[in-house]
Amino acid sequence: MPPSRGGSPPTDDPPGDGGPEAASFIAESAAELALLARRHKLGVLVRLLEMAKMEAEERVRLRSKRKLS
């Protein structure tokens, strides 16, 4: 498939709508990777992965908040 105008391949997801399932998966994966990085004393990676986890959790939280409204 050719890339879309934005340079990324097209998906079935609406533009700008990171699905809650994807965000939840990313949060869980980032948490596990942060534990692994911490175990191996990779401090910068720990911080980056924790930030990614927090961002993904925030997306899930905001998405669920919108559904309640």
Structural class: mainly alpha
Radius of gyration: 15 Å
Q: Assign an overall shape.
A: elongated
The tally of helices reads: 2
| Element-by-element helix/strand order | HH
Helix proportion range: 55-70%
**Count the strands?**
0
Note the beta-strand portion: under 5%
Distance between the termini: 37 Å
Question: What's the story with the biggest beta sheet?
Answer: none
Into how many domains do the coordinates divide?
1
Unreliable stretches:
none
Mean pLDDT across every amino acid position: 83
Topology:
Elements: H1 20-39, H2 43-68
Question: What does this molecule look like?
Answer:
This protein has 69 residues and is mostly helical. It has one domain (20-68). The chain is built from two helices and no strands. Helix 1 (20-39) packs antiparallel against helix 2 (43-68). The longest helix has 26 residues, at 43-68. The chain is elongated, with a radius of gyration of 15 Å. It starts with 19 loop residues before the first helix and ends with a helix.
